[in-house]
Design goal:
This protein is an all-alpha fold. It is 76% helix and 0% strand.
């Protein structure tokens, strides 16, 4: 780190001075505790690549990453519900089989390939959306589709499988006995009962979207946290990498905590103390 901070051509004395100023000669546990204490106050150090405090880098880049994740999350939510419900209504029919095949393709296609195909088709050939960078709402469409395809495909199968299971429970049988159609039973009775497994799976997929954002931001030139992380790796910006990894940890823990709290609010049974 000291050699990187000193730059090319620095002599041993300069490197030793920088290492001492940065506290790199201290024991590793002490260095970690010092860094953790600074991180709590929002001081993540200074990027070796840009020379700017990481707090400033986060302030500029986090909103772009959050916009990518928010749009992709909403799109994945809509995609999964539409495909899952349509497949459950079809129940083994032609539509169900087609949607099942599309979900398998979406769940097995890597992000970088999806991004490349979307850019070639909609940007290069048709010219409907910008190829690179952020220049308006239309420039977010391809990144949102790219990052939402995998979680949307996985969640659609979760919806389909859980709806099929819910349709075999007593409340569904009662609905049919009342003269309700299959679609009505799915929407009124079965769909609310799959909320908990859907929420937990959505939370897991949403955290994975943060990892997918690294590739998506790089391909579409969004200059968010993911793009910064790749550049930090390329230029051996250890301080930048360390700060971004800590941000990832906070993000993962926060999302899982929010999902757990939401699940307890949605299902009172989860709030009851377990009997010994």
């Amino acid at each position: 780190i000291a050699e990187r901070a000193a730059g090319a051509g620095a002599d041993g004395a300069m490197i030793a001075k920088i290492a001492n100023d940065l506290g790199l000669n201290d024991p590793l546990p002490l260095r970690y505790l010092r860094w953790l204490g600074d991180a709590v106050t929002g001081d993540f150090g200074v990027s070796l690549r840009t020379g700017k405090p990481m707090a400033e880098e986060f302030a500029v880049r986090i909103p772009k990453t959050l916009a990518l994740l928010a749009g992709g999350g909403v799109l994945a939510l809509l995609l999964s519900l539409v495909m899952g419900l349509a497949g459950a209504v079809s129940n083994g029919g032609f539509v169900d089989k087609v949607l099942h095949g599309l979900a398998l393709i979406g769940a097995s296609t890597p992000n970088f390939f999806v991004a490349a195909m979307l850019v070639i088709l909609f940007s290069v050939m048709l010219g409907w959306v910008p190829t690179f960078g952020v220049s308006g709402f239309s420039s977010w469409l391809l990144p949102w589709i790219t990052i939402a395809l995998f979680p949307g495909s996985v969640l659609s199968r979760v919806v389909r499988v859980n709806l099929q299971e819910a349709m075999s429970r007593p409340f569904a049988t009662t609905g049919f006995a009342k003269g309700l159609t299959r679609r009505a039973v799915l929407l009124r009775e079965a769909l609310p009962n799959i909320l908990i497994p859907y929420m937990t799976t959505f939370g897991a997929q949403f955290t994975l979207m943060m990892i997918g954002a690294i590739v998506v931001e790089r391909v579409f030139g969004l200059n968010g946290i993911g793009a910064f992380f790749i550049e930090a790796i390329r230029f051996r910006d250890f301080i930048g990498m360390q700060a971004v990894l800590m941000l990832f940890v906070v993000f993962f823990v926060s999302v899982n905590l929010i999902v757990d709290i939401a699940a307890m609010l949605a299902d009172p049974r989860l709030r009851r103390p377990r009997k010994a």
